Backbone:
């Protein structure tokens, strides 16, 4: 019986994108792990000793979920946007579009590879964090669920960004001016309960808050936002990204022109 999905085509795109990781191993894996380790050294070890526990958790351990989530979402956007932008830039995207492969299979290959790299990166950062701080994971299933959901959602967002960008400047402007500030202001380094009441309300408009809060809950059972709301907001953003990707292939926006 013939499979409804062209697995050979999906595998070809998926493995090609993964192979790019090995060609840029330092940039894709080593650099994010090293930079995150520096955060643990500076904030966790040096500065963290001057802070009291946050919600009953040592500051170094409190940082772990936030730093993992910050790295995963930024790398998801970067990997997926670059993955689809390069075929557009070189013109090889037309070979993909003319091949007997559906839009779903194309997205599955590109986004699946980007999400896989982000998940591997998140696991490596978690393992590296053990060298600096001691942490626990109370809900390992939900930890994995939030990690995978975040990787897939922001890889889809990166895919959209890679299609939208028509130059290297545009490809970098959203991660630098939007994603990174949202990640830093999303509770990666602090609990939003530490903010004044007005800023607590303003912060709730930041989608990264729900990702970090839900992910931190899976570690310590404590969250700034109820975990159900975190899941619902993440699922909503995922649905919006899926709708945008569907529209891109439905209209051929910047792919067929």
Residues:
């Amino acid at each position: 019986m013939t499979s409804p999905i062209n697995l050979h085509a999906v595998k070809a795109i998926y493995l090609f994108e993964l192979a790019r990781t090995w060609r840029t191993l330092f940039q894709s894996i080593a650099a994010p792990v090293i930079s995150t380790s520096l955060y643990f050294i500076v904030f966790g070890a040096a500065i963290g000793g001057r802070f009291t526990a946050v919600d009953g958790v040592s500051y170094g351990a409190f940082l772990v979920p936030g730093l993992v989530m910050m790295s995963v979402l930024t790398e998801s956007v970067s990997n997926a946007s670059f993955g689809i932008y390069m075929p557009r830039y070189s013109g090889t995207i037309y070979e993909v579009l003319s091949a007997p492969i559906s839009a779903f299979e194309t997205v599955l290959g590109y986004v699946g590879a980007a999400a896989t790299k982000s998940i591997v990166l998140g696991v490596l950062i978690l393992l590296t964090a053990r060298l600096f701080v001691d942490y626990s994971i109370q809900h390992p299933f939900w930890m994995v669920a939030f990690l995978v959901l975040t990787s897939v959602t922001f890889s889809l967002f990166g895919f959209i960004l890679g299609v939208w960008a028509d130059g290297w400047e545009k490809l970098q402007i959203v991660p630098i001016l939007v994603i990174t500030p949202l990640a830093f202001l999303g509770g990666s380094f602090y609990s939003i309960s530490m903010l004044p009441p007005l800023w607590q309300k303003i912060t709730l408009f930041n989608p990264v808050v729900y990702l970090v809060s839900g992910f931190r809950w899976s570690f310590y059972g404590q969250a700034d936002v109820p975990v159900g709301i975190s899941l619902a907001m993440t699922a909503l953003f995922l649905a919006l990204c899926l709708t945008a990707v569907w529209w891109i292939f439905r209209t051929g926006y910047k792919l067929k022109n």
Q: What stands out?
A: DSSP finds ten helices and no strands in the chain. Residues 7-251 form one domain.
